[in-house]
Amino acid sequence: MAAEGHETAAPSAGEYIIHHLHHLQNGKQSGIADFSVVNLDSVFFSILLGVLGCFFLWRAAKSATSGVPGRFQAAVEILVEMVADQAKGIVHNAESRKLVAPLALTVFVWIFLMNAMDLLPVDLLPWVWQNITGDHHAYLRVVPTADLSMTMGLSVGVLITCLIYNVKIKGVGGWAHELVAAPFGDKVYLYPVNLAMQLIEFLAKTVSHGMRLFGNMYAGELIFMLIALMGGAWSLSATGIGLAIGHIIAGSVWAIFHILIITLQAFVFMMLTLVYIGQAHDAH
């Protein structure tokens, strides 16, 4: 925060958190939902990490050998086999698995990389960006999955994939009949109720799919900010050494624990993607 003269006052804890929770945008958001505004930081980092994930997988495929694999190749092979086994157990259509298994692998790797951005120091990339732009109030958020618009976009993508497979597997007529005949039975007077229940199910699955990932990553981001504040407060308190030590211990413990969280959330999102696509292959 700029003060009078040439001095700069440190922001309060609330101002610090609010600043770090604000996205770099192409305009000013006028409401809770403003589709004319784009979170440029989320778009940039998600594309960058998507390209990086594809590059890693491409390098693993290009350097694969039939002999004793190296560590990187072995890790990728284990990951690919794990995803393939999960896809085989959920999606029983072999033809569909040709697309679904690579899709699930892509989802896992991409979300894991986006989640892993939370392990970077909270102020590192924002500080770099502020120095590049020369604006010490410039906004930048680096965890795309802590952005609700990003996680909901991913879940809507899964919904569209499910709708496509519903039509592909059951046909337009078959799926349309299923929408009005399930889950309560093929009775004309139950058609409106069945349709309403089906629409609610699709909506609930999509919203919960995106909100689950967003909620976990948003909470993790907030905890890292609180830990950063603990470290920043050491120079302003008589118990500065204790705060500095607490900052190091808390940051290390939470970062180690967060490795499990980011991996688990990527796995859960991938598994739900497989489950929802698998459900599209099942007839009621």
Could you give a quick summary of the protein structure above?
Helices cover 71% and strands 0% of the residues.
Write the layout of secondary structure elements.
Layout: H1 13-20, H2 40-62, H3 71-90, H4 94-116, H5 124-133, H6 148-181, H7 191-232, H8 240-281
Helix pairs in contact: 1-7, 2-4, 3-4, 4-8, 6-7, 6-8, 7-8
Structure description:
With 284 residues, the protein is mainly alpha-helical. The chain has one domain. Helix content is 71%, strand content 0%. The protein is built from eight helices and no strands. It has helices at residues 13-20, 40-62, 71-90, 94-116, 124-133, 148-181, 191-232, 240-281. Helix 1 crosses helix 7 (191-232) and helix 2 crosses helix 4. The chain starts with 12 loop residues before the first helix and ends with a helix.
Mind summarizing the main beta sheet? none
Helix content estimate? over 70%
Mass-distribution shape? globular
**How many angstroms does the end-to-end distance come to?**
60 Å
Order of H and E elements: HHHHHHHH
Rg on CA atoms, Å: 23 Å
Number of spatially distinct domains = 1
Structural class: mainly alpha
Q: Which ranges are low-confidence, i.e. pLDDT below 50, for 5 or more consecutive residues? A: 1-7
Total number of helical segments?
Answer: 8
> Whole-number average pLDDT?
89
The total beta strand count reads: 0
Fraction of residues in β-strands: under 5%
Keywords:
single chain, 284 residues, mainly alpha, 8 helices
